[in-house]
Sequence to fold (570 residues):
Amino acid sequence: MNFQRSSGILLHPSSLPSKFGIGDFGPNAYKFVDYLEKSGQRLWQILPLGPTSFGDSPYQSFSTFAGNTLFISPDILYKKGYLEEMDIELSPIFSCKKVDYGNAIPFKKGLFEKAYRRFQKKAFTADQAEFQKFCEKNSFWLEDYALFAALKDYFIAERQGAGFSSEFYAFEEKTSKKLPKHLQKDYYFGAVWSTWPEDLVNREYGALEKWKRKLATAIDRYKFLQFEFFRQWEELKQYANDKNIKIIGDVPIFVAYDSADTWANPKNYYIDEKGFPIVVAGVPPDYFSETGQLWGNPLYNWEYHEKTGYQWWIDRIRCTLNMVDILRIDHFRGFESYWAVPFEDKDATKGEWRKGPGEKLFMAVEKELGKLPIIAEDLGIITDDVRKLRKKLGFPGMRILHFAFNEDSKNEYLPHNYETNTVAYTGTHDNDTTIGWYTNGTEHEKDHVRRYMNISGNDIAWDMIRLVMSSTAIFSIFPIQDVLRLDGNHRMNIPSTSNGNWQFRFEMSQLKEEDAQGLRYLSELFNRLPEIQENEENEEEITPVLTQEEKPSISTKREKPNRKQGRRKK
Fold:
């Protein structure tokens, strides 16, 4: 793709300031977009926006199509008349430093219940018509997801009330050879879909219709929340696009096992007749873990996908590109070869490499949607075949500065070895913050860093930001933690750990005017603040060819940057 040289900030919406326990699409999201504009940043990279399951990871979602309703802003619901002032003013006092999932989830669910009831009673005819149109347009995934979510709620509540009942012990006996003790409890009381009654697991028509009638109100409520999620996100994205800021979204290569995707379409995956995976995803031992990473996602039955013309993938990428401007595909190497681990294994050491769909998948998607604005996450164990596939498709790869300093001048993560078709990062959500990384590095590594950049190391986060900005990479991205000069206590995720992740938050007062001026100065200095012309005749279109109904409404308004604004004084 003909991307423009630019830079931006990695920040997931959950990390935004909000008084409701987790970041959302409310006023502070718009203030952050204003900060991006002021600082000359043209890119806002986020993590996957799907509803998170147990563990709160955005890479383990209950649906690849649905949105995380925790991002719905109560402030916006109040402005629309779906909440009263008392509803939002009497909210609990949440931590502003970390996401408080345990308390934010039940609090927001209570607000959403009130909003749904008032939507039913007070919504204007236009809102109701818009809601119906949304449901019809998205019925191919929304019907299954809303039923899936309502069923989970029902069985979780029922089983918690019954405790260790005869049904639990029957499930325990049936799965004794399949699941360890702790997973049996997690699966059963978490109402994983394979633990439901057999007629629901097998999606028998009569059972589906019976439960649709029984849970009709809950299903309709989930549909309303998805409608409101997408409406709020579309307005926020439009605001960013109007300021010439593009959203880089994130698509995990795999889906979660406990998801509407696997329940509704088990033929897409290696899942047995009882609903359990045969093999699951992970990666072999690497930089992050000596025993590899056991992700546990069910693996795709690529032969079946090929027979369907990769229609599920076409739908998935089309829907995501209606939400974002550019896609980062996580674990791109899995499309060439993927690590398959037997479901019963406790770590990823005994997996095996299997061939993926390669070029065929992307050619099928491109034939349907047009040129794809995709970034390939090509980190980890990368072979020549993976490199050839990425280059043949023309997707930019990723380079992480934290991986660069091992005294090998040919290290591909060192900026002097970058190819232009690259996205350069100081670090990602899986890395320590730059200050944490540097502080915990060996003296040998630190010395290499200082010599390479000819610096003292006293302002390492911004020194690294400057380095990725100055590189030949078409995009340079840095986490908000590096902009704010935060240490390792503020990192987003530690791979292969299950506790304490995805909780990072900051306060608006931390976004300093002088830092915005500094970022704008660097963007101008290293030509990452391009002039936006009214008629870009030579720029290749980077939005895929979707139907008119499916295209995101992106403003054509273009703003010419003020080249004199925000220069850093010498």
User: Anything to note?
Assistant: The longest strand covers residues 246-251. The chain has a mean pLDDT of 91.
